[in-house]
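Summary for the lay section of the report: proteins are chains of building blocks that fold into shapes. Here we show the chain for IrrE N-terminal-like domain-containing protein and then a coded description of the shape we predicted for it.
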Amino acid sequence: MTTLGADFLRFVDQVHARHGYEMDFWRLAAGLGIPVTPGPFSSTVSLPCTVITLEEGVYHSPRTFVKMHEISHALLRDSGIEKELEWLCESPEEFRAQVEAYCNFGAGQLQMPGPLLDQATQRYGTSPGAVLCLAEACGSSLPAAMRRVVFGGLEADAHRAAFLTQRSYVKDVVTANIPLEFSVGTRVPEIALEVPTAKLRRVPEDYGVGLTLGTVAW
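The coded shape description reads as follows.
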């Protein structure tokens, strides 16, 4: 987590806290004074007032990540960090990629706010149990909950990683200052032998068949 990234997530947390860590997108958008309308694609624009447009399927979906991602665009602009990124990036393509990455992290934080992350990690530590607890409490996907647990503490020197395997293949992996010897798609017949320090847990079949969730932290 870069210093600028941590600054943005602190800003998101401060704004979210002022709105009682509201997890309902519609109530949060209303509280922030951001109108939301259906449209041909999802976007956030300033006219100069901020307006969120959601693609029809997203607008009516109960899932919240894409919606929270659009709120994150508004917060990234309000924080002033978007302007800093524009100065730091060497090309428009790099700038757009950085903005999208920041807004993905912001969306995860809005979807899985700090108090719920703290409850999960206080009960389970940095473990698969914390990831599952957070995903169930917030209705998020496992990949989103993995990233929230790995990056959630905002410490620049944190050493954490989480991975998801399906049978003998790596389905997802996220790391913070921990090198792992595999990536998405790698065949790993015995994950316990590949990462002996990992905490492992079989995932309920509600999330998919043959899934194992692992975490590493120090």
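Put simply, here is one thing we learned. The CA atoms of residues 44 and 70 lie 6 Å apart.
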